Every structure is written in C-alpha cells, then in structure tokens.
Amino acid sequence: MLELLTKELDAHRHPENARQMENYMKNHFPFFGIKTPERRKITTQFLKETGLSKQPFNSEFVLELWEKDEREYQNIALDYIEIKLQNISKEHISLLEKLITTKSWWDTVDMLAQKPIGKIAADSSEVIHESIEDWSTNENMWLRRTSILFQLKYKEKTDEELLYKYIKRNTDSKEFFIQKAIGWALREYSKTNPNSVRTFIQQNALAKLSIREGSKYI
C-alpha cells in the first residue's frame, strides 16, 4: 500500500528544505523536505485513492508509516489520526503508547497527547487510572510529558487536581521537555483559572522555565 505513497513523496523531494528541516529537528530524523501544506495535499489524495479515508481506523497503516525513516511518514500518520479522530477509542491506547515511545520528539508526542489521548481520556475517563496514571511517573520522559499535556485543551473541563498532581510528580525533573510541558500546561490552564494557577506557582517549587512559561498570562 505504501509504494504509491512513497513514489509520490519521492517525486516531491526537496533537498534544501530537507536540510533545513533536519537541522530544525536536531538531526534526529531524515526528511524528504516536503512542507506541511503540500504534505497534507499528498495525504488527502492518497487516502482518497486508496479508500482509507472511508474505511475504519487502520492501526496497521499507522504502524507501517511509523517504521519508515523519513519524518514525513510519521507526520502523515498524525494527519491520518487527526482525520480519523472520531474513530479512535480506548482500544487504541496501546497503539498510541507505542507511538509516543518510539521515534519520539515533541512534534509527534504533543499532537498525540492533545488530540487522540485527550479525546480518549475525555470519552473514557477510566484510561486515566488504567494508563495515564502510570505514565506520570514512567521512566520514559515522553509518557510523563503526555500525562501533563493531555488536558491542554480541556479549558473549564480540566481536572485541576489531576493536573497539579501530575505536575508535582515531575517538578524535580531536569529535563527541558518536562519543565517546558509544566509551564505550557499551567499557561494554558491560566486562561481558564488564573487565580488557581497563580496560587499553584507561588506555593510550589517549580523550575524557572516552568514558572516563566506558566506565568505569561497572569
């Protein structure tokens, strides 16, 4: 199935863009050099031609994309997940955990945290205790980041106690991506409850980065 997609991606390869993208991503992944708008056009056309857009969510397709080298393949997997978001449920939590913990970087993890994980947790709150609770203390940094960020778009539906609990479990972390996630989560929640976030920042020993990010709107 991927032969058609690979042929199309290869036809749109742009070496200069690829070098810039690879540098931006700290050379963790190779790229074809296809920018987002063009990649999404390719994705839409491919899903239409193959009929995947009208079929049930296909986990094997996602995993095949995840195994490929160029980062555009993982980006296309994310595009597909977003397109099929309404078909994603708690039965896919193991798949998503695998995606979070393999070929991990902020560009994939943050989308997975906010969209599919956020949706699943909102639809089936039991996954918080079954999975996300353990993620908040997992040795894998990206799972911890996900536990902090999955409520990012919940606004007034945010479980404040849970958010603060997961943040407190990670306040000693020296990892940039954890400190940044804490600040980001606090900043976003401060748009809904600034007084609560202000008090939380005052009463807890947070990293300077977390405080700076979390205090932007309060």
Shape: globular
CATH architecture of the domain at 1-87: Alpha Horseshoe
Span between N and C termini? 50 Å
Low-confidence stretches: none
Description of the structure:
This protein is mainly α and 218 residues long. It has a domain at 1-87: Leucine-rich Repeat Variant (Alpha Horseshoe), CATH 1.25.10. 66% of the residues lie in helices and 0% in strands. The protein has helices at 2-11, 15-24, 36-50, 59-67, 71-83, 93-101, 106-123, 126-135, 141-149, 160-168, 176-190, 194-203, 208-214. Helix 9 (141-149) packs parallel to helix 11 and helix 11 runs parallel beside helix 13 (208-214). It is globular and about 55 Å long. The model has no long low-confidence stretch (mean pLDDT 98).
In a nutshell, what does this entry contain?
This protein has 218 residues and is mainly α. Helices cover 66% and strands 0% of the residues.
Which features does this protein show?
Leucine-rich Repeat Variant; 66% helix; mainly alpha; globular; 218 residues
